[in-house]
Amino acid sequence: MREAFEYLIPSCIDDAIALRRQAGKEGRYIAGGTEIVPRMNRGEFAPTCLIELSRLQELSLLDAEGGGLRIGAMITHAEVESSPLTKGPWQALSDASGSIRSPQVTNCGTVGGNVAFGVPSADLVPPFLALQANLRLKGTNGERYLPIGDFLIGPYRNALEDGEVLIEVRLPRAGKNFASAFCKVAKYHGLGLASASVAAALTLREGQIHDARIAIGAATPVPKRVLEAEAFLEGKTPDEKVLREAGRLVSAAAEPREDSIRASPFYKRRVLVPLTERTVTCALSRSRAQDAGDGK
Amino acid sequence: MNISFTVNGTLHRLRVRPEATLLTVLRDELELIGAKHACDGGECGACTVLLDRRAVSSCTILAVAARDRQIVTVEGLACNGSLHPLQKAFVDRGALQCGFCAGGMLISAKALLDKMLTPSRDQVKRALAGNLCRCSGYQGIIDAVLDAAGALRGEAR
Fold first, then answer.
1. Under 8 Å CB-to-CB from A276, ≥6 apart: which residues?
2. Are residues A33 and B65, on separate chains, in Cβ contact within 8 Å?
3. How many structural domains compose chain B?
4. How many structural domains is chain A composed of?
5. How many angstroms away from the CA of A283 is the closest CA of chain B?
6. Dihedral sign (CA B48, B51, B53, B56)
């Protein structure tokens, strides 16, 4: 017999945390619903208490601040794709949210859901890794910040503690000529769920690559940075050989599942080479365009 | 839970189970069956409705989450017995095969044309990317949306 199902709509963060703690293991926060509701429909997930986050105003802020960016957990993919704030240095975010096939998903799916649900192919996670995102979390013991790399502890698992809520994603200040890009391969003309994805962020100074950060998605249990490729790119003058080697290092870091659904492990490893080349090339050209734009 | 929302201009006050999706409430409570119950997972677009003017899959939204909002279903497109230009274009183009996807296609196309009246063919494809047609009749559907855009701009075909 199903117990009474509760649907709660708190209007402040502290109330949400308290309700979530009271609900215990059977409680879940719900944002856009694009992951949770289909699972409920299929009977895979039967919570007894859902706590809706839509009234928490702090979760719906999207703001440039001190050269960085704050993106509330309830900001939708459609808002990320179309906001003027996710352009320039943060273009990888707009690339990622814009790569999601269906408007029905981008109109509902949220940044917080994409990060916290922990889907290995989540499109925003590689960009957030490359952009060194910090997640602002709040629980009963107050607030804390966690780098996104420490937040994702396994497929569909995150580091949120009992009752904690993800408030926003914060991106540190971008310096001059800092640029980013995200590319994926997927069905439906590249708009489906990622078979493999790459995000790159870098700064081009006097023709040399600096502070490159490369992250991959859908090719490891959780998206991750490829430090070997980052170290290799430091100080390099980009040419075909350099890009190819970066791609090789990224490919070597992949750990695709043997039974992966959307593409074989062989394909994922193989495609990461040109995908990395494409992503880094795109970030480089954006860095050059920014430099040219600044010089005007 | 007691909620209210507006569907096709009419305010409805309803008592819904919190786990009921907007789709099941539209179909089973309000008997609006234009939104189709198909994949139940936000994959196919057959259940697309407008929620505050944006296209959403009504199977991935709980009815309670749609409280106090404006919903438009395919039943709300025709006005005083005359077809919406999109519907007329679908008929004129023969853009329907089995017809199961048509309601969702029309709603996604309406979301697009509410935003822009001169979409490119690519923009139409992007707007319909969340709607699957298992008869694979996409070209006729895209042509019909472009025709409807022309009609809404006041151009004769």
1. A198, A200, A214, A229, A243, A246, A247, A250, A251
2. yes
3. 2
4. 3
5. 24
6. negative
Are A192 and A278 contained in the same domain?
A: yes
The answer to the question of residue A296 being in a domain is no
Using CB atoms within 10 A of its CB, is residue A20 exposed (0-12), middle (13-18) or buried (19+)? buried
Tell me the residue range of the domain where B90 lies. 85-152
Instruction: Tell whether B57 lies on the interface with A, counting CB pairs under 8 A.
Output: yes
Its domain, for residue A27, covers 6-52
Domain presence at residue A93: no
| Spans in chain A with pLDDT lower than 70 | 1-3, 295-296
* Band of pLDDT at residue B156, cut at 50, 70 and 90: low
Q: Does the structure show a pLDDT above 80 at B71?
A: yes
Find out whether A202 and A209 touch, Cβ atoms under 8 Å.
yes
Enumerate residues 6+ apart whose C-beta is below 8 A from A141.
Answer: none
pTM beyond cutoff 0.90: yes
**Residue A233, CB-side half-sphere exposure with 13 Å CA sphere:** 33
B37: nearest CA partner in chain A: A41
Among residues A132, A150, A171, the one where a domain terminates is: A171
Tens digit of each residue's pLDDT (9 = 90 or more) over A74-119: 999 999 999 999 999 999 999 999 999 899 999 999 999 999 999 9
Residues B60, B107, single domain; the answer is no
Closest residue in chain A to residue B39, using alpha carbons only: A38
CA distance B78 to chain A (A): 22
Instruction: Examine the domain organization and report whether A112 and A132 are in the same domain.
Output: yes
Residue among B43, B53, B57 with most chain A CBs within 10 A, to mutate = B57
Q: Which residues, listed in sequence order, are joined to residue B23 by a DSSP beta bridge?
A: none
Based on the fold, state whether residues B37 and B61 are members of the same structural domain.
yes
Interface of A with B in 73-132 (CB under 8 A): 78, 101-105, 107-108
Chain B residues with CB under 8 Å of A54 CB are 65
| Angle, helices B138-152/B102-115, rounded to nearest 10 degrees | 40
The domain that contains A41 carries what CATH number?
A: 3.30.43.10
- Final residue before a domain boundary, out of B18, B45, B76: B76
User: Cβ of B121 under 8 Å from any chain A Cβ?
Assistant: no
Interface ipTM: 0.95
Q: In this complex, do A103 and B60 lie within 8 Å of one another by their Cβ atoms?
A: no
A191 to B129: CB separation less than 8 angstroms, yes or no: yes
CATH of the domain at A167: 3.30.465.10
Nearest to A104 among B1, B21, B55 (CB): B55
Chain centre to alpha carbon of residue A129: 7
Express each pLDDT in A32-47 by its tens digit.
999 999 999 999 988 8
* Domain finish residue from B57, B76, B95: B76
User: Are A6 and B18 in contact (CB < 8 Å)?
Assistant: yes
